[in-house]
């Protein structure tokens, strides 16, 4: 299985080596387009001659009820994979943590090791990716904020070994919106339209680089910077994002999912839960 995600040739990362993704950018920077591109690339079975693509099972939390909320109409089991309220988001994250823990127990009892090394009768565990667009908006609800953060912490700290990953979108990754100890667990960091971001945002996203030393990019929608662990990069790399939103998203997703064979994956129906 190939875990590399190439949203452009200049913006490539390995989900397993650089787990969890944080995408930041001001309004109109193409942040949501980047999140969509990551998911389309992650969902595909197209990889190399020797290996299939990531084939992730994608879930979406869209508290603003915007672009991603409509994906439930054409994803397989879409009504179980797309939520828009904080209450349903908490439920989805809770069930995801329970699925992760069940997989852990099964792995430890039968195989052990990292999820990507487990092969049973030629089958592997399917990778899970949960995308949250506008995380700060989701965390505004005080009734569910602490619960959601506790589930996110568990996924960020324990998810990689079991094959569970988060992809988070927010305008400004400040500690008041998203605790610093959690944002630092995101090993792939993308800043869209960096020239429009303030220096504090740049420092929070790339604390190891002086903002003045960041590569210069043109101030256009779709321009971005990416840093990913596992790449031999000293500073983030610039890239230009294709306009994934111009694609016929419903048909693209239907095509991607129609090419994925459930028999490629280890059967988890004995313990797997859906919302």
TrEMBL record:
Keywords: ATP-binding, Nucleotide-binding
Molecular-function GO terms, alphabetical: ATP binding; DNA binding
Domain of life: Bacteria
Statement: the UniProt record of this protein carries the keyword Nucleotide-binding: yes
Gene3D superfamilies reported in the protein's UniProt record: P-loop containing nucleotide triphosphate hydrolases (3.40.50.300)
Xref: InterPro entries: FtsK/SpoIIIE/SftA (IPR050206), FtsK_dom (IPR002543), P-loop_NTPase (IPR027417)
Pfam assignment, any one: FtsK_SpoIIIE
SUPFAM superfamilies per record: P-loop containing nucleoside triphosphate hydrolases
Domain FtsK span(s) in chain numbering: 8-201
Residues involved in ATP binding: 25-32
Protein known as: FtsK domain-containing protein
Upper classification of the organism: Bacteria, Bacillati, Bacillota, Bacilli, Lactobacillales
């Amino acid at each position: 299985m190939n875990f590399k995600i190439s949203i452009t040739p200049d913006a490539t990362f390995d989900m397993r080596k650089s787990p969890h993704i944080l995408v930041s950018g001001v309004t109109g920077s193409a942040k949501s387009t980047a999140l969509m591109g990551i998911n389309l690339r992650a969902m595909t079975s197209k990889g190399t001659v020797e290996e299939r693509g990531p084939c992730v099972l994608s879930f979406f939390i869209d508290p603003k009820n915007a672009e991603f909320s409509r994906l439930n109409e054409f994803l397989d089991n879409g009504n179980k994979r797309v939520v828009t309220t904080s209450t349903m988001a908490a439920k989805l994250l809770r069930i995801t943590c329970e699925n992760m823990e069940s997989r852990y127990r099964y792995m430890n009892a039968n195989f052990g090791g990292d999820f990507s090394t487990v092969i049973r009768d030629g089958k592997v565990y399917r990778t899970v990716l949960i995308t949250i667009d506008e995380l700060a908006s989701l965390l505004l609800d005080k009734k569910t904020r602490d619960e959601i953060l506790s589930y996110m912490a568990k996924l960020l700290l324990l998810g990689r070994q079991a094959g569970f990953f988060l992809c988070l979108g927010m305008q400004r990754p400040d500690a008041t919106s998203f605790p610093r100890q959690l944002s630092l667990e995101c090993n792939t960091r993308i800043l869209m339209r960096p020239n429009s971001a303030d220096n504090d945002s740049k420092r929070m996203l790339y604390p190891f680089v002086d903002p003045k030393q960041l590569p210069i990019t043109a101030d256009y929608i779709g321009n971005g910077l990416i840093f990913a662990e596992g790449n031999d990069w000293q500073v983030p790399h610039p890239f230009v994002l294709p306009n994934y939103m111009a694609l016929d998203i419903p048909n693209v997703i239907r095509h991607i999912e129609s090419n994925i064979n459930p028999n490629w994956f280890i059967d988890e129906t004995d313990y797997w839960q859906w919302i």
